Predict the 3D structure of the following.
Amino acid sequence: MTAWRLTEDAPPPEDGMETSGEPRRRRSSTRLLVVAATVLLTLVGAGGLAIARSGAIFAERPEGCVKPDRTMQLYAVELPKDGTQIRLGYGTSPQTASYPGPTMEMMEGECVAITLHNLVPAATLEQLRTNPAHPLGVSLHVHGVKYTQLSDGTVQSGSFVPPGESRTYTWYAQPRNKKTGSPGTAGYWWYHDHVVGGPHGTQGLGAGLFGGLVVRRPGDPKPDRTYTVVFGDRQSINLRRGAATDTCDAQNPQPGPTCLVARKGEKVEFIVVGIGNDMHTFHLHGHSWADTRTGTVSNGEPFADGVPIIDNKPLGPGDSFGFQVAAGDSVGPGHWMLHCHMQFHSDGGMSTMLHVLDESGAMPPGHDHSHPATAAGAGATTGQHQHN
Amino acid sequence: MTAWRLTEDAPPPEDGMETSGEPRRRRSSTRLLVVAATVLLTLVGAGGLAIARSGAIFAERPEGCVKPDRTMQLYAVELPKDGTQIRLGYGTSPQTASYPGPTMEMMEGECVAITLHNLVPAATLEQLRTNPAHPLGVSLHVHGVKYTQLSDGTVQSGSFVPPGESRTYTWYAQPRNKKTGSPGTAGYWWYHDHVVGGPHGTQGLGAGLFGGLVVRRPGDPKPDRTYTVVFGDRQSINLRRGAATDTCDAQNPQPGPTCLVARKGEKVEFIVVGIGNDMHTFHLHGHSWADTRTGTVSNGEPFADGVPIIDNKPLGPGDSFGFQVAAGDSVGPGHWMLHCHMQFHSDGGMSTMLHVLDESGAMPPGHDHSHPATAAGAGATTGQHQHN
Amino acid sequence: MTAWRLTEDAPPPEDGMETSGEPRRRRSSTRLLVVAATVLLTLVGAGGLAIARSGAIFAERPEGCVKPDRTMQLYAVELPKDGTQIRLGYGTSPQTASYPGPTMEMMEGECVAITLHNLVPAATLEQLRTNPAHPLGVSLHVHGVKYTQLSDGTVQSGSFVPPGESRTYTWYAQPRNKKTGSPGTAGYWWYHDHVVGGPHGTQGLGAGLFGGLVVRRPGDPKPDRTYTVVFGDRQSINLRRGAATDTCDAQNPQPGPTCLVARKGEKVEFIVVGIGNDMHTFHLHGHSWADTRTGTVSNGEPFADGVPIIDNKPLGPGDSFGFQVAAGDSVGPGHWMLHCHMQFHSDGGMSTMLHVLDESGAMPPGHDHSHPATAAGAGATTGQHQHN
């Protein structure tokens, strides 16, 4: 039998110090509790792993989510290798899996149940794990929104999916609550694997198991386009190593993971995520934004004047932020660079473009005399140019 | 005799540029001052060191502190080695010294006089110094609050403590002042040595001479528990290298420096500090906070809607931030990971747990089938389990 | 002829997912546009470079700038080598070029036309370039304010200056616009070369081609002094490697790029910029500031209470921030350290002082007994001590 008293924070209160004990444990004398405890703890460190999957007692849904408003299916699949690099992706169908995975959107107050199907071959997961004692599986760990231990997506909580199996994760976009002090969950977030290769999913992240999430609050400005850009070390933006592997056709850009296009005046939303081991600094030419929850300030907000306006923001692994800009506002159409401002990262290819077309959808000609062959004539066609 | 004129910022005003001179020096023509100066300057760089300790003229107390409201004793002592690594700690008694040192709490408006006693053997300080010309001593340098040169804790200002000696440092939690434009000093701060080993206290910091400080403003929300977590390179959280050296007993967690426990609904306050050479990103599972001074937003604040909500925050050496969360709000009890999101840091052990018990102080059983032996029965006891 | 349809963000909408398609492309069915396009795209990556300089169609001035309110001349010149390190600088005259270059100041609403003259010898630019296919030139790329493609300062947009030539860049400090949602451009920014050595100007930045820019909003507090401090890797503050190469005469400090001096009570403004490859953390002893656009909070601002107060801030390449403090407020005169808090950076010399004199312009004597020879007597003189 294990029982314990929740007493004092360590180190214990010290003699001769009037203050230090205070902030650690308030009213300890009246709160010296004798606790009947049934404590099952599992610490996951460099050493031991707890392989545990069922959860009879922990709640399935976070408080406030009576039942999911929506359900969706998500598939973790192996994608074609990038050279020798194993690539994995999430998709709402096995055929459409990609890295980043699908960008998710929720409204505060919503609750979503996502069933993750692990289609990644066990042999692939074996190749990726760094410790033979580590279990095989993929998971879904999300930032920002609420979930119980059963949807934590970690090994230690048992909330992962072995090869060939499925598991349902419940996410709740808890709204702001003045009574409990909850600030709400509206924001720019992301989701990712936390299991592949080791207890922090380092190999799953490196292979591509991540995606963007935006939680909106009623009244938030709505974008015309959303792009999720992920900065990872030795990987470039969205795991594409610069222009060489960029899928953006310079003569006919079709919006895609590394092909960012908008017409002038469109509200373009960026979801920016950091993964891996390094810091990055996200810089966008010609555009800036307010360092607020949405990147914008609206009419009459009393704090609008005090908020920093930025065009460059540091970004570490696990960080995510987002913002909306009016494409080409004041600066006009053009090919606006978007890059990590760490020079050896940008020089190494961590750089792409936001292509801003004019209001009619055309790019003004003439800025580039070295490529006259690309100065195609104007004209309309309904043929859609497909890109891979 | 040394005299000088405080004239222009360098580089001097340039011809042909209407603007550039302006922001550097305003109204320079009317402010071209002839100054009677007695200037004693000491620049501490890679090269020379100024060993100076007495200060006859500089004020002892910062303006606004008429006399200290409180006094306390603080001891710098050598602790048992961690392998071959020398460990030092601050304590309000020699017996209770630890790393981090005691968490301090002040209210805006308060002034505290702290007498630091250097009990660290001179031989130990000699081992730690990198330059034989560097003086032996420890100091107390604090972030955020006010202090004069005599309490700066640096070698160059002479405000350090040789072995066996004592020195009193005066800290003033200056309140916000609309007249002078002072924003106040309420916030999450830290204190540390600035002298051991070299002019920036690098060896003192690495050995453990640091602690958290919170300055509250009247009306700020009060926490039920406060934990100070310090991220240092190659050191893991609070200099403990992950679960292997974690003092948290998984079956009977007692709150301590790396054993973070709370009951559901308790207001848990984190003071997060970065030391060393590396960036880190602090991530807490299942909980998020507002990126404000306190981590919270309260009723009716007009900026509440624009503030980013985060669950991951970059943290460099010298940075400190803090916040309060309601433990387990919406997400329920559980073992909620808290780790650096830089993958090689978390994989290396920079990871621990916030153990959230239910309202009665128990952890719901059943999430971990692999450790049935730890499924202790329920029951009450008044026996307190002690941990080292 | 090139034509295309601006249709869907990639990856394309997926089956079975109710949400994911939404945020990427709103109202796609009604916006499936057939676009008559004349698209000229140039992607600059590790591989190809587009050497293009003229721009017939792109607008010269950003929208909102009817014509420049001011014009200025700026010169890029080669400065004396720092050891074997090539140094370049911007100046409003060739004789006054320096690193950092002149600190610029604009008011929101202003438009400035800056003519950059490239006086850097072609041979020097050749030495700095890393790829023989890269064009020779210097440029002016600015953060925060508005400019068209013709003033982007990049190779790909053709907006750079070959040796011996000149080019006019137009910057517009767009004001806040509640209608368009523009947050304005007031803030602490910087400008730099984007061309020397490679497509991101890495060699130009490393050699010294950068400077600070502040854009003020009507009503912003005005400083008495402004210092621009730039943190670069392996370079120390403003490319000076610590006290050894500091130009600050300890006995008679004259304000300069690395000699920061103010009298007590003066409003000192810092513009802090990060360049290079590394993160830094800017720490100032004895002073703190609000983490707002200006570093201050003014009377009656409803958000003042929620804003973090800081004295240490992480800073990555491309980041810039600024603030004002009242020199010596509460803490009094003294030599207040200002350093990167990454320990190996500060130990390596990334450290200097803010010298705060008393109201009369004198430094109280007596804090330094080891340097009695510098205890000069008091007295007045009109002779100005010149420093190089």
In short: The helical segments of chain A are 21-24, 122-128, 202-207, 343-347. The radius of gyration of chain A is 24 Å.
